[in-house]
Each structure stands twice: as structure tokens, then as C-alpha cells.
From TrEMBL:
Coiled coil: none annotated. GO terms for molecular function: DNA-binding transcription factor activity; transcription cis-regulatory region binding. PANTHER family: HTH-TYPE TRANSCRIPTIONAL REGULATOR BETI, HTH-TYPE TRANSCRIPTIONAL REGULATOR RUTR. This is Helix-turn-helix transcriptional regulator. PROSITE patterns: HTH_TETR_2. Pfam families: TetR_C_16, TetR_N. Keywords: DNA-binding, Transcription, Transcription regulation. Residues 5-65 form the HTH tetR-type domain. Residues 28-47 bind DNA. The lineage of its organism: Bacteria, Bacillati, Actinomycetota, Actinomycetes, Micrococcales.
Amino acid sequence: MARSPADSDAIARAAARLFVDRGYAATTVRDIAAAADVDPAVVIRRFGSKEALFLRTMESEELARAWRATLDGPLDTFGERCAAALLDSRQDTQGVFLALLRASDAEGIGSRLRDAHEERFVAPLRERLGGGDAADLRARLAAAAAGGLLYALWAVGDEALDADRDALVRCYGAVIQAAIA
């Protein structure tokens, strides 16, 4: 079995693939180790736990980048930019979103997901909206609306929403925009 400095990358790639394909509960440390061609002890040494490895590999950098870029533009067009960014982020985001959704009730995962949601989505938008209690509620509503779109498209598979991208960006953008208004 390999034990090179590249082990961490191989483990992370194997874990990400298995978590997306099988889900958190059905993926074992042994499965990850076998796919990465390392001993299971190496997985734990490098990442600490299956939970920590899951959370690290299930971060959608693509979605986080899109969210940051959306925050940078004018607030009066935020909703449409947000809807467009969500729809355009499908490359790795769908598998990650669904894996996170399926694992959200696993011990230790739900609380970490709430922390990540707060740090990556709610807090930056709250700051952009000017802070305070009203901004906090508006940021939470916008983040919930954004997550709702992904849920409808990817968990439920509502194909009618996926038919006309431009119409969806306009209409759902208005929903998100109303949340921050």
C-alpha cells in the first residue's frame, strides 16, 4: 500500500467520490482506504475521523466562489445574480449538495453544517446588508430561498423548474431579492 505525501490527496479524492456516490452512512473508512490504496489507519491519521474527512471533502468550492462573487455586485440585482450563480454551479455542486443533505442527520454532521452555513453564506450576506437584526433575518431568508431552489431542482427533481433557465433566473431572482429587501 502507498504511503507517499500524495496520500492525503488520494484519500480526499476517493472519499469525495464515494461520499457522493454512496452517501455518508454507506461509506466506510475501509472503503475509502481501499479506493485510495492506503491502510485505513492512514486515513484516520491524516484526517482524524470519517466525519472530518466528509466535511472537508464535501465543501463545494465552486458554490462558495459563486456566492462570494454574487455578494460583490450591487444589492439591487443580487437576487438574479444569486439565482444565476446557483443554476450555473452544477459541475460539482449537485453531488455535494445531495451528499450533505443525506448526511445532515448523522451525529456531528448537522451541527457542523449549520456552522458552515452560518460562516459561508449567512454571515457574509448579513455584513453586506449592513449588519443588525433586520439584516440577519434577511440574510437567513435569502440563504434559505437559495437552498430551497437547489432542493427543488436536485433532491425533488422538479424538471418544470429546469425548463427555462432565463425565466427561472428572473422569477426566482425576484424571490431572493424580496428576501433581502
